[in-house]
């Protein structure tokens, strides 16, 4: 089972349990090994209750269980494939992606939260936004960072990610962020936050933590910050800056950094390396072209 990430196997087990529950309610259905025709009926059942990802997860779970047992997967059967295609067509909907964060938005964030009297809460907001943006980080990446994972030198911040979504074998990878020597430099943001946080350089506590109020002011707890709370504080900080905060999310930081690099003509392979994308298609959905880049193709057609 260790061939899959723990989070993946948890999802597969839950999906497999749902199949078993449905199959058990019908005496004529065989739970295991799964009959392709009967599994196609199950997919049809899901079409009235679930999303596209529900059917895909069910198929992946069934394939996984049969693989563990050394049996051929019913998902390879043409009947099941047609059922899945029909499910996707019936339940497909447009993908609405969040707007990317721009350098202008980050500059305004820094004005609001990076002043000389900035609190620990202010600096935490800047750390999340600037480091996620510059490192093309997912939330799962930044929430697992400890001070021990960060090395600061004269020209860069190096963050060692012990694990990430694209690092299936947990080999670890380094994300390098350049020191820009500007007031909005992400390395300077990290230095200010680490100083206020007070962790030792070899601390293994997550640097993204909850804050508690004391008589002396805000101080950090040892409990990590959740996705929901992180999203709340970032959107609250964006609210007075952007026209519609509902069009932004935590992923806006990762897509914003990638889009800015692409529009600045950074070579695509370097963008892939920084964002740890394994395929062009996975990377390209993060790009939002600026007006100049968007017109580049049709301005170079020779007419």
From TrEMBL:
InterPro entries: DNA_brk_join_enz, Integrase-like_cat_sf, Integrase_recombinase_N, Phage_Integrase-like_Recomb. PANTHER family: DNA ADENINE METHYLTRANSFERASE, PHAGE_INTEGRASE DOMAIN-CONTAINING PROTEIN. The keyword Amino-acid biosynthesis does not apply. The keyword Secreted does not apply. It comes from the Eukaryota. GO terms for molecular function: DNA binding. Signal peptide: none annotated. Keywords: DNA recombination, DNA-binding. It comes from Patiria miniata. This is Tyr recombinase domain-containing protein. One of its GO terms (biological process) is DNA recombination.
